[in-house]
Write a structure and sequence with these properties.
single chain, eleven-stranded antiparallel β-sheet, Lipoprotein LprG
Length: about 250
Amino acid sequence: MSLAVTGAVVVLAACGNTPAPGTQAAAASTAAATTTLTQADLGKKVQEALLKKGTFRVVSTTAGADPSTLTADVKLTGSTPEFVVTADGMTVLGAGGQLYGQGKGISDGPQWVKHDAKKTGVDALTGAMIQLIAWQAQPQQFLAGSSYATQFTTAAGPAVNGVATTQYNLTIDLQKAAQAKAFGDSVTAESLAKNKTTTLTAKVLLDADSLPRKIDYTLGEDTGTSTFTNFGTPVVIAAPPIDKVAK
């Protein structure tokens, strides 16, 4: 189970017909991370920094009952986030405000499946899987709950790929954050109660521009790491051709 597993019960994809991800890492900043954010503005400032860059790549690895490695290229320059996420033989694509999935456990063969919230039965389960994978494209989203952290400390952090960082250690009360709709409708108090997930503990490393460089987290019995690179690197993301989408 991954960080996003918190979501609809949580929240996550490598095959053809997917837009080519960005390739070149953005030049690393060597400036000291002198800016220290507060518990109240951490999530907001991180998202603002990412929006300013427009694009990024995140590679997440999870341990525990269902270990996995995931790569996502994300574009934040449009009216809605666009992304392509690959992991474990699956691909999830967000484009034009729609979600599409392809691969193991989602579709048979090369066809894409378009997420439809009105579907029932097996189709509803497929849609839930697509949503869970999609959340993982932006693992920093849980920082929206930083205002509900029961523990929050800062310290000088280690360098990540040569970039100086500030380290934020926090434990988020997920129930309180979900009740306040800090995560929108992606994570509900009901789903958390059902899964007996009450807190998320994280070590967040931010650079001088408040960009996330690395996040280590613990959620229940699961642990994971997300590393962020390629800030501002051009990435092309487009919806699959209509004739490649299952009817």
